[in-house]
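Page 47, continued from p. 46.
Same chain as before, 208 aa.
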Amino acid sequence: MAKITFSEEIYLRALTGKVVAEHILDDYTKIAIISINNTICAAISAATEAVFVSLTEGRAAHFFVDDSNVDQVIQQVIEFNPDGVVLMFGGETPIEETKNLFVKTMHAIAVKNPEFDVILHVRIFAAGGLQEALKDEAVEIYAEENEMGVYTVDLDNSLLIFSSIHVDDDDYDDIIHLEKILEIPVTAEHADLLNRSLRNKTIAWVDA
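Result:
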C-alpha cells in the first residue's frame, strides 16, 4: 500500500468534510467549527462548512483556538448561537499539543454548559482526547449529563460511522460507550485514502 502524500491528506479531508456535512450535519441550520490552526484541520473544516452552506442554506462559522484564547473563543461561539458545534482537532500538530488544547476547549464548554450539540472528530477521539478530557471534573459532569456525537471509521468495511457518546462513572474510571446512529458507505477512492492515512497508525479501535 503506497504511503499517503500530504497533498492526498488534504484531499482526504475534503472528501471527509463533504460526507460529514451531507450525512451528519444535514438537520442543523447553524453550525460552528472549532479547530486548532493547522493546514489539515483548516482543510476539513472549510470543506465541511462549504458543503453544509451549499446543501442547507444555513449559516456556518469557523473559530481557531490556541493556548491564549480558548475562553474567549468559546464565548464567541456561544454568541454566534449555533445548534451544532464540531470540534475538528487533529492534523499535523503534535498530538500532545492537540490533546492539551482539546481538553482546554472541552473544559471551557463544560463550564459554560451551552445549548448546542457537540460533535467530535475521529482523530482526537481515536487519540484518547475525550478520555483525557474526562479527568477534568467539569468535563466529566458535562459528558455524563449531555449527549455528544463522534464520527469514526471502519476501514475494513469502508464506512464512516456516526455514534452518540455516553459516559458512565463506575467509581474507578469513566467508561465511554458508543451507540451507533448511522453507517455511511464511502467511495472506493475515499476508502483507499482513509486506509493509507490511518491503517498504519496506532489507533487500534479503528479496525474493530
